[in-house]
Amino acid sequence: MPLPKAELHLHIEGTLEPELAFDLAARNGVKLRYADTEELREAYRFEDLQSFLNLYYELMTVLRTERDFEDLANAYLTRAAAQGVRHAEIFFDPQAHLARGLDMRTVVEGLWRALGRSEENHGVSTRLILCFLRDESADSALETLEAARPYLDRITGIGLDSAEVGHPPAKFRQVYETAAGLGLRRVAHAGEEGPPEYITQSLDLLGIERVDHGLRCMEDPELVERLVRERVPLTLCPLSNVRLRTVDTLADHPLPAMLDAGLLCTVNSDDPAYFGGYADDNFRAVRESLGLTEERLRELARNSFLASFLEDDEERRARYLAEVDAYVF
Ligand SMILES: [Zn+2]
């Protein structure tokens, strides 16, 4: 049995495996540019963020109905459960779907069909986090939040993702303020390929409670000190960093130095269908490539539950932490 863990950085659209993409394309009469799953899997060998995003948005077009989103989420939850995930806080990108004519209801209710029954069906508790695409306008983000209002009982928080460079957090100040007023939790991708200042801005201007990625904080010792002092969690995604060339090889990943610095790090899979591994694959990869000890791995698992948005269910958090403490490697 794998180490029990929470997954806090996971884009549901990034869990679309080639086989499911072809199944959904067939069901919906969508023609893909690829002859078969082998050829599509070859296309998953991109070199940088932009080439990944191009494929990511292209394949999303197979998602059309509530049932498609339900099937996508169930496929992820099945894999996640097998990898020791006990709690998943799942990102989705509504703008990408609204832009191609779907409505918010199809996306949220479709995902909810799986998430609402995830505990019974998969033994995984869940939260849903609505992400804004940072390469879209601030007005578009506000419109998206408005469209989500009828579904806020399904949505725990907001996030910010997609191409980081050139799209500073300051652009989204107003939508984060509005979301805070609605009682939503706040996270944002920052310091993945963008500079450490984007992390500082996200904290100061957007009021974020967790940093997604954030590994470039290591370039700014004062920022590291602040993140340690304020116990701000970071959701790191090691296999994603290698595939998108944020680090050259896994052996170069700053995770050990970040843990040594006292940062509250977690390990996650980001877009696992595209980046070569789900949650425990990432744990095993850092264990092998970075030589992390069992106690370090246990610390990462503990951190994942400490960083979870489980303030409304502390009993559950305590139960998960006890599972981690009792785990025998
Ligand atoms: Zn991400």
From TrEMBL:
InterPro entries: A_deaminase_dom, ADE, Ado/ade_deaminase, Metal_Hydrolase. Zn(2+) binds at H9, H11, H189, D270. Binds 1 zinc ion per subunit. Gene3D superfamilies: Metal-dependent hydrolases. The active site is at E192 (proton donor). Substrate binds at D271. The keyword ATP-binding does not apply. The keyword Membrane does not apply. Its cofactor is Zn(2+). It catalyses: adenine + H2O + H(+) = hypoxanthine + NH4(+). Residues 4-317 form the Adenosine deaminase domain. GO terms for molecular function: adenine deaminase activity; zinc ion binding. One of its GO terms (biological process) is adenine catabolic process. Keywords: Hydrolase, Metal-binding, Nucleotide metabolism, Zinc. CDD domains: ADA. It is an enzyme of class 3 (hydrolase). GO terms for cellular component: cytosol. The record marks H213 as: Important for catalytic activity. Its EC number is 3.5.4.2. Catalyzes the hydrolytic deamination of adenine to hypoxanthine. Plays an important role in the purine salvage pathway and in nitrogen catabolism. Belongs to the metallo-dependent hydrolases superfamily. Adenosine and AMP deaminases family. Adenine deaminase type 2 subfamily. HAMAP family: Adenine_deaminase. This is Adenine deaminase. It comes from Streptomyces murinus.
